[in-house]
Amino acid sequence: MGNTRANRRFRSQEWFDNPNNPGMTALYIERYLNQQFTREELQSERPIIGIAQTGSDLAPCNKIHVFLMDRIKAGIRDGGGIPMEFPVHPIQETGKRPTAALDRNLAYLGLVEVLHGYPLDGVVLTTGCDKTTPAMLMGAATMDIPAITLNGGPMLDGWWQGKRAGSGTVVWESRRLLSEGKIDYEEFMSRVCASAPSLGHCNTMGTASTMNAMAEALGMSLTGCSAIPAPFRERMNMAYETGKRIVQMVLDDLKPSDILTREAFENAIIVNSAIGGSTNAPPHLQAIARHAGVELDVTDWQKVGYDVPLLLNMQPAGEFLGESFFRAGGVPAIMAELKKAGRLHEGAMTVTGRTMGENLEGQASQDHQVIRPYDDPLREKAGFIVLSGNLFDSALMKTSVISKDFYQRFLSRPGQEGVHEARAIVFEGPEDYHDRINDAALGIDENCILFIRNVGCVGYPGSAEVVNMQPPDAVLRQGIDHLPTVGDGRQSGTSESPSILNASPESVVGGGLAYLQTGDRVRLDLNAGRMDALVEPAEWQARKEAWVPPVLENQTPWEEIYRQNVGQLAQGGCLELATAYQKVRETLPRD
Ligand code: FES
Ligand code: MG
């Protein structure tokens, strides 16, 4: 594809080369000359490409991008563009308190302001850690200038005593062993640290690998980008190719709105089931779709994705980690299997300028232990079930992590397959859970379901990853690793717990979970797609009328702004007012 610029003026020329306003043009241009650029190049009618830098010392999952920057810039130069790197508000999943989820929308807002207010014609979105990917894609969707994602890649595989130690997943397992007294604090720390052997993001199919696979499935990254481990030379090459490619996208005016279509989102949902992806993908994809103006609903996850088989054998749903996934062919190999089975919208446009179907030509699994053929999967029907009932309008259950043991224990009573009735134990948040989980007075046993509330977008604030509550130590010692758990928060994508989560609306805004009491009977019916508190309607109504919303205390100004404007997880946890702003690039900011 050659230079197809036609006679368009670039946005950046409105800053750097506006003959109608020499005064402002001079002012805009002079300070960019004092270090790196010459007047000739800034006025050379070449596209100016922003590089949204999400890595820093505070954001180690994305720090690889600091080292990839030379290659991205070289690609942009060789493509004929001019690179300008700029910082993004850090969103480190493991570092930010109270939760990185609070900052996805803040980084989104920051990105929109940068893309709108500065002389940029296209952008490379560096991604990696969980929320960085959706934040960048949400901003690109709102702005709608040409954009391409480049993730940093997963860390190398972690190993502990001859076994793979996967990010996050090793934490949940080791935490149980610590509670049971089978390992001590030192071994606990060593096991967890062993899972992080190099630069890169989580090496499991947690939220980071999931969301980068989603970016690729949506058509927003180059083919094969997402699974390349961070330290590999292929990652460097991909950085260069991505830089080169964005320049041509600007020349061709290939925008997010050409790529982020309903078909692209359906492809992403299908890929998510096939990879055993994170329960955080639904709110993030929902947010991207809303900013892109695409109709998507939480129930689409079941309608479109439930009957897709699990093809990828990677933790937490399987056994391998990122290096094996890459060597087996990564996302293109998964998608090639789905394409062969007729499950993809092959005509969806992508950043390559070709359709997804074209990008996948010649791709195939290189290792059937890691990426299974469509007709010989690890598990049939591996997508999410979307539940509703009197406790919430919607909540998700990830079926690919329902273990045989869990199914037999809770969901296979003769004649009652898929149904579980039990006593509710209700916690008011993670602090209350930690204080009381081992309280013998609660009498927690395997006939209980653990509930946690006040941990949604408004409640926490930001929504906390706490629904995968560990059973009491005494229950663990009986060999029961998981009790059914339910909550209006989220859980880590690295968790192997089949929780019922993302319940919307959340309790602090009056969702049904608010009226549940410890001791109530609750019925889960997977066949009917329902979960209900078995409380008399009159009694339920009386509790509703007596309910007093909790007082929410903000610790920072952003928490207050966020709480006033955020929606529910089922709708993507967006700043609701922001969804009205679309194709922002069509208006130039004032001088
Ligand atoms: Fe950053 Fe998992 S904690 S990628
Ligand atoms: Mg997480």
TrEMBL record:
Keywords: Iron, Iron-sulfur, Lyase, Metal-binding. Signal peptide: none annotated. GO terms for molecular function: hydro-lyase activity; iron-sulfur cluster binding; metal ion binding. The keyword Lyase applies. InterPro entries: Dihydro-acid_dehy_C, DiOHA_6PGluconate_deHydtase_CS, ILV_EDD_C, ILV_EDD_N, IlvD/EDD_N, Sugar_Degrad_Dehydratases. Residues 369-572 form the Dihydroxy-acid/6-phosphogluconate dehydratase C-terminal domain. Residues 46-359 form the Dihydroxy-acid/6-phosphogluconate dehydratase N-terminal domain. Gene3D superfamilies: IlvD/EDD C-terminal domain-like. It comes from the Bacteria. Belongs to the IlvD/Edd family. This is Dihydroxy-acid dehydratase. It comes from Paracoccus sulfuroxidans.
